[in-house]
Amino acid sequence: MKAIFHADKKWGIGKANGLMFTLPKDMKFFRETTMGKIVVMGRNTLLSFPGGKPLKDRVNIVLSPVDIEGAVTVHDLDELFAEVEKYPADDVFVIGGASVYRELIPYCTEILVTKVDADGGADVFVPDLDADPDFECVQESGAVEDNGYTIRFCVYRNLEVKPY
């Protein structure tokens, strides 16, 4: 299992149940990376999508207390882990929100982070992987301009993956 998100300088990932930045190159990267794959999210992340509908051309797994039409609904981590075991681990991407990232990042082998060199005024955050000795940045692109922001595409490897 992997995770994918963009984060600002303070490891903020969102504001008011939405993204902080409009980043076409990051969105293209997200789309290309997750297309045809399995995406795991919480209910609020699903509700933040256009029309609150699951993403097209992906298996959408939603961690939620209520069933979600058009998605595979799991109610707890045991159900989630049983469901993701059905798929190749490299095809499963955790896509949010913050509480789901905090819960599942320890189980992810890789974290794909688009770092935005700005403060987005976030109200939700993920752990600072640069400060966590269990994570190592193994790949970082050069700086890229995206809609007026400087971004870098980074890959972190989890050195202490928790089994599920």
Task: Write structural notes for this entry.
The protein is an alpha/beta fold. The protein has a single domain (about 1-160), classed as 3-Layer(aba) Sandwich (Dihydrofolate Reductase, subunit A), CATH 3.40.430.10. About 20% of the residues lie in helices and about 35% in strands. The protein has four helices and eleven strands; from the N terminus they run E-E-H-E-H-E-E-H-E-H-E-E-E-E-E. It has helices at about 25-35, 45-50, 75-85, 100-105; strands at about 1-5, 10-15, 40, 60-65, 70-75, 90-95, 110-115, 125, 135-140, 145, 150-160. The strands form two sheets. Strands 1, 3, 4, 5, 6, 7, 9, 10 and 11 form a nine-stranded mixed sheet that branches. It has a two-stranded antiparallel ribbon with strand order 2-8. A hairpin with a 2-residue loop joins strand 10 (about 145) and strand 11 (about 150-160). The longest helix has 11 residues, at about 25-35. The chain is globular and about 40 Å long. About 40% of the residues are buried. The mean pLDDT is about 95.
